[in-house]
Amino acid sequence: MKVSVSIGKESYQTTITAGKHTTIVDEPKEVGGTDLGPTPDQLLLSSLGACKAITGRMYADRKEWKLDKIIINLQVDKEHLKKEKETNITCEVTLIGDLQPEHRERLLSVIDRCPIHRILTGPVKIESRLST
């Protein structure tokens, strides 16, 4: 899996290419961007939320549970981040459908084990090097 990210001189407007898909990431105007796309931290939360939602949908479909919709609202506590060495992300999960209480609890448990959640909560090593 490869993703390519590039930025020119357009005040923080960044282009992400992933396979045949292109996305613009930017910063708000108040910090010098052009606000043409989500910020990097919004994109990170979007990735986590999308992965959780897809994982929940796949599981419910496999179990043939009557799940109509999953809504996940995510937020990073930036004040906590300034004071502590850990990042605090809150994910509020709403499950809409005719589900038994035990199905709701099981879905939340499965959703919390999606691949992106596991990446973000596990040991992560990021290596940056100059290309030749």
Automatic annotation (TrEMBL):
**What InterPro entries does UniProt report for this protein, alphabetically?**
KH_dom-like_a/b, OsmC/Ohr_fam, OsmC/Ohrsf
Highest rank taxon of the organism:
Bacteria
The cross-references to Pfam families, in alphabetical order and at most eight, read:
OsmC (PF02566)
Protein's recorded name: OsmC family protein
Organism, by scientific name, is Candidatus Sphingobacterium stercoripullorum
